[in-house]
């Protein structure tokens, strides 16, 4: 397992993250097996959000693992807040109340990282700053970040927030590549050249923000996995299978490796509840894909390389 430093913190994290969005429906025993297996594979980073299962995923996680002080110190736990029933809320009151709820459900005294989930168009960054100051002073949150934010949205927060923005969770997979598309096809009169994200990947590297890739196996916005989709991604699957044979891993590992190969040290957030797929994915933590292989995957997914 490749371990990476999270800039702006004292944390050294696995570049594979266990996302806990879907664990609510699992038995406590199966959930414990999933968590412990991930730790045995070298994963030390666990991603939550207060909306996952209406908060029940956090409760389920702590019960399944039997959260205690000794175990807690072996984990980096991150959660997110700001999404409510049909709207977004970055008010000071909501952020503070959300964190108290998260800590209670996870049975822990602190979060390693709190992310602001999906941008609030009505954000008042002065309130966010006050909330962050209070959470840091109380020891309830050690570090702060965002999710699905653009460079300018981060800059607006940074005008008032004193703490470093250490992470940004963004959708990224072989079949969802806006993070790199416009840079590769710069100044060309084609759809791939359209800058849809404000250059957030380069911005993150310039400002020492760790990018966390969510939905690493999805095509588009929850259109289903691209692995095994021979109708839409036949060439891609065939090429991935060739590389899987070369590196003696599964196609899942290659899909992960395409992301981890990027020099930005991107973390991959896995949403799987399947122990076998978890193990397969972890093998993609540090596969040394060549540049030719990385671009070959990119082209096989239907993208153009000038």
Entry summary:
With 306 residues, this protein is of the alpha/beta class. The chain contains 12 helices and 10 strands.
**Using DSSP, what is the number of strands?**
10
Mean pLDDT score: 97
Low-confidence stretches: none
For the biggest sheet, the summary is: 8 strands, parallel, barrel
In the sheet with the most strands, the strands line up as 3-4-5-6-7-8-9-10
Distance between the termini: 34 Å
Write structural notes for this entry.
A hairpin with a 6-residue loop joins strand 1 and strand 2. Helix content is about 40%, strand content about 15%. The protein has an eight-stranded parallel beta barrel with strand order 3-4-5-6-7-8-9-10, surrounded by five helices. Strands 1-2 form a two-stranded antiparallel sheet. The chain is globular and about 50 Å long. With about 300 residues, the protein is α/β, with parallel strands linked by helices. It contains twelve helices and ten strands.
SSE arrangement:
Layout: E1 3-5, E2 12-14, E3 16-19, H1 28-40, E4 45-47, H2 56-65, H3 69-72, E5 76-81, H4 92-106, E6 111-116, H5 125-138, E7 141-147, H6 151-158, E8 165-171, H7 178-184, H8 200-206, E9 210-214, H9 230-247, H10 251-260, E10 267-270, H11 275-282, H12 291-300
Parallel strand pairs: 3-4, 3-10, 4-5, 5-6, 6-7, 7-8, 8-9, 9-10
Antiparallel strand pairs: 1-2
Helix pairs in contact: 1-2, 1-11, 2-4, 4-5, 9-10, 9-12, 10-11
Task: Provide tags for this entry.
12 helices, alpha/beta, 306 residues, 8-stranded parallel beta barrel
């Amino acid at each position: 397992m490749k371990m990476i430093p999270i800039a702006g913190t004292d944390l050294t994290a696995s570049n594979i993250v266990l996302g806990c969005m879907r664990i609510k429906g699992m038995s406590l025993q199966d959930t414990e097996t999933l968590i412990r297996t991930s730790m045995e594979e070298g994963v030390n980073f666990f991603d939550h959000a207060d909306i996952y299962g209406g908060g029940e995923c956090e409760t389920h996680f702590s019960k399944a693992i039997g959260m205690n002080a000794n175990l807690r110190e072996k984990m980096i736990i991150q959660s997110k807040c700001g999404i409510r029933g049909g709207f977004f809320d970055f008010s000071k009151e909501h952020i503070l109340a959300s964190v108290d709820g998260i800590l209670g459900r996870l049975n822990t005294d602190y979060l390693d990282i709190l992310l602001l989930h999906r941008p609030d168009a009505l954000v008042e960054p002065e309130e966010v700053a006050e909330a962050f100051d209070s959470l840091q002073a109380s020891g309830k949150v050690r570090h702060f970040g965002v999710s699905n934010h653009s460079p300018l949205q981060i800059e607006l927060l940074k005008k008032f927030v004193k703490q470093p923005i250490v992470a940004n969770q963004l959708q990224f997979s072989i079949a969802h590549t806006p993070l790199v598309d416009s840079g590769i096809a710069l100044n060309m009169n084609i759809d791939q050249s359209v800058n849809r994200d404000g250059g957030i990947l380069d911005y993150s590297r310039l400002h020492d923000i760790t990018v966390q890739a969510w939905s690493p196996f999805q095509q588009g916005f929850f259109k289903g996995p691209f692995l095994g989709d021979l109708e839409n991604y036949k060439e891609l699957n065939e090429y991935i299978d060739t590389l899987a044979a070369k590196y003696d891993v599964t196609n899942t590992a290659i899909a992960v490796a395409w992301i981890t190969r990027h020099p930005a040290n991107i973390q991959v957030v896995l949403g799987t509840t399947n122990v076998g797929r978890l193990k397969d994915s972890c093998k993609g933590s540090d596969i040394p894909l060549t540049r030719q292989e990385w671009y070959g995957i990119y082209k096989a997914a239907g993208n153009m390389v000038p």
